[in-house]
UniProtKB/TrEMBL annotation:
This is Protein-disulfide isomerase. Residues 36-241 form the Thioredoxin domain. Pfam families: Thioredoxin_4 (PF13462). GO terms for molecular function: isomerase activity. It comes from the Bacteria. InterPro entries: Thiol:disulfide_interchange, Thioredoxin-like_fold, Thioredoxin-like_sf, Thioredoxin_domain. It comes from Idiomarina seosinensis. Residues 1-21 form the signal peptide. PROSITE patterns: THIOREDOXIN_2. Keywords: Isomerase, Signal. The lineage of its organism: Bacteria, Pseudomonadati, Pseudomonadota, Gammaproteobacteria, Alteromonadales.
Amino acid sequence: MNFIYKMFFIIAVVFTSNVLAQDLTPQQAEELEKVEQLLRENPQLISNIHQGLQRFLEQQSDQQNAFSDHQEWLYQSAAHPILGNNDAMHKIIVFTDYNCPFCKKLEPSLHKLVEEYPSIQIVNVFVPLRQQQVDGLKTNSTLYGLNLWRNHPDAFFEAHNLMMKKSGMHTADSLQSVAQVTGTEAFLSPSDESEAVIRKNMSAFRDLGFRGTPTIIIGQQVTPGYIPYDKLEAIATKQFELD
């Protein structure tokens, strides 16, 4: 991390902590003193850092507004497939995709987390970023999965697990194979209801400024990309005060 980005990072951490000056932690106070000294020694950087910090804070504000706009859809809608107990106290939002290799890598950790912490529920918000239609079919893996969740939930998890275990992109053959194994061929056709869910999911994804999958929302923390189980568990227990 070069000099200017290091200073910007320290300032951003301090000023987005929602604390007053007298409430700074000893580490934050020490870092703030270092920043002040560095800026006094390099005054030519003040303008650029000030502008960058303003843009950063504006982006943070925009994201908070987007969270408010989409909170009910993400946390309360029955349209999203869930892992864990229906009445779990804590919810983790996972923007995911059946064609995303890192989403597939994350999947076992999500199952393990809800098994070890019954008070946690995983809300799967599907965004088909990598494939909107499968060649040879008028649908894709997300539409198929959402059709099952809404119309045949008893078969959803078997199909979901099979789709998550497949390496690479889904094809007409792979989806038809899953449908045959689970007896759900009738749900390979697209539906207006599932397409509407995807549009709302994509709207939330874009408005929140996310770029890829998986993106994980745990309490007040947003984590982009794959993380191993120990880190996932550590964030969840801290955010939900489960220690």
